[in-house]
Amino acid sequence: MRRVLYLTPIVFMVVFAICPILIMVAISFWTRAGFSVVPAFVFDAYGEFFGGARTAVLTRSILTALLATALCLVVAYPVAYLLARRSRPGFVRVVLLLFTIPFLVNYIIRNFSWAYLLGRTGPINETLLALGLVGAPVDWLLFSTFSVYIGLVSSYMPFMVFPLWLVLAGIDQRLIDASSLLGATPLQTFLRVTLPLSLPGVFAAVIFGLVGILGESAVSLILGGAGYELMGNTIMSATNVLNYPLAAAMSTVTVGLMVLLLVVWYRVADIRTFLGQIMGRG
Amino acid sequence: MHGAKTTHRLSLLLLALVLVFLYGPLLHPLLVALSQTGQVGPGMTFTLDWFGTMFSGRLVGPALVNSLIAAGIAGVITPILAVLGAMAVREFKPKRLIVLIMILPLFIPAVTMGLASALLLRMLGIPASLLTIVVIHIVWALPFAFLIVLTVMSGFNAVYLEAAYMSGANRWRAFRDVELPLIWPGVSGAALFSAIISFNETIRTTLVQGANNTIQTYIWSQFLQVGLSQQLFALMASLILLTVGLVVVMIALSLRRTD
Predict the structure, then answer these.
(1) C-beta separation of B218 from A75 below 8 A
(2) CA distance B163 to chain A (A)
(3) Which ipTM did the prediction report?
(4) Chain B CB contacts of A9 below 8 Å
């Protein structure tokens, strides 16, 4: 009875997270008949996806996801490092709280703000004009690749700080001390001890950034301007015209990439080293 | 030593810049909502009018009620599931697989999760309702709640349970009287975290809500259909303030744990 109770959350996840994904994968092989879908096993939807202009969106999404995730990492890693290795507990608590708030506030609202801040009459352009740095408002700040990256980094970076902090804080200080006692410079210690030991957390943060951005729809809609699409937008448009097999096929490709990354993570990085602190001796 | 000091200052500067980058967008809706004309800057005229009229739209009230109900239910159910999930990690093997299943929704893009859930509902013939909204919110919040509860439970010393058993307590009594009080700060933190996540969700919800709205999907649909008004900025500013308030309560609860 007790063990059955413990199983409920796992069953819940299987029913409401894994089953929907499996059904979606199945529907990606079905065919359309008017406004409904008919069970089949054909690759029509994939043909429609890879045969058309949507491949360009997939390529752009993958490139955007890679670059934006790298940018997130460049910002989040030093922050997590600073918190984990060099700071007093009270300071860490306050800063983590400061990262929790923007992470929890709906990222769509935060992106609405960016649309204003980066606009022609927004404060950034006003400041540039007032300082005389530019003669006319800068147009490429908004509805551009630049603004999309700003939106993506501000949406996904706060989350990435947490797994990075978790893994960096879990590194045994004695290893760092041993390294410097053996004559390594701080940089050598970082490159040969800290960085390799933090890779499981880096991988977790990177997977989260990559899959989120790959399927992103709101940031590109708000900050990308007319016609700027990421996979999420293309999936949404297919859903809106009730082309479920196509929407499912595109989502399946996204999930497929995610599963690939998770399998690598599961095999290579060992979740226990990432969750070492919180999984006990498991 | 001089080099170390410079590095320290530089890292604090980086931290400050990152925080400005994150907090600028939180401040902006508040300023627009307080501005008479929508213009923000030196010399702007302040008003609270927009906060007074932000509930005037016919759809705002029901959307807000839906959001509050969903956040309330998610805030109760999710931490319970999270505790049971953490128990499962303690009890069953392989632990890694259980953890992976529990945190899986973190790795599924919002649109994909929404679409997949909508397809499941269609297949089963379940109509979209507040219940379907709540379920998709719990799926999204559970990984976070689970990780929070797992963290506090790992700090719990099993010796206390042994002591309870030796004093004649059964499993349930030992949990209720010994373990639960000790992990309670984490559980209540997970509850608030789940409610906040539910309250701030948009994209997943739009795909399973049918004719219903939450306050977030209402704002989103207004943006898509007619654009953002001053009232909407007042609404967004209120949602930001509410979220900040809840986070502060959450932190206050977690501070009690260390005292």
Answers:
(1) no
(2) 20
(3) 0.91
(4) 81-82, 84-85, 88, 102, 142, 146
Omega of the bond leading into A186 within 30 degrees of 0 (cis): no
Based on the structure, what is the number of domains in chain A? Answer: 1
Give this prediction's pTM: 0.91
pLDDT at A273 over 70: no
In a domain, A17, yes or no: no
Distances (CA, A) of A258 to A21, B32, B108: 12, 39, 8
- Domain assignment present for residue B37? The answer is no
Tell me the pLDDT band of A277, cut-offs 50, 70 and 90: low
Tell me, yes or no, whether B59 lies in a domain. no
Which parts of B155-214 fold into alpha helices (H)? 159-166, 171-174, 180-199, 203-208
A24 within domain boundaries: no
Q: Beta partners for B35? A: B46
pLDDT digits (tens, 9 = 90+) for B24-83: 999 999 999 998 887 777 778 888 888 988 888 888 999 999 999 999 999 999 999 999
Radius of gyration, alpha carbons of chain B? 22
Question: In this structure, what CATH number is given to the domain that contains residue A59?
Answer: 1.10.3720.10
Mutate to test the interface with B, among A113, A127, A203, A221 (most CBs of B within 10 A): A113
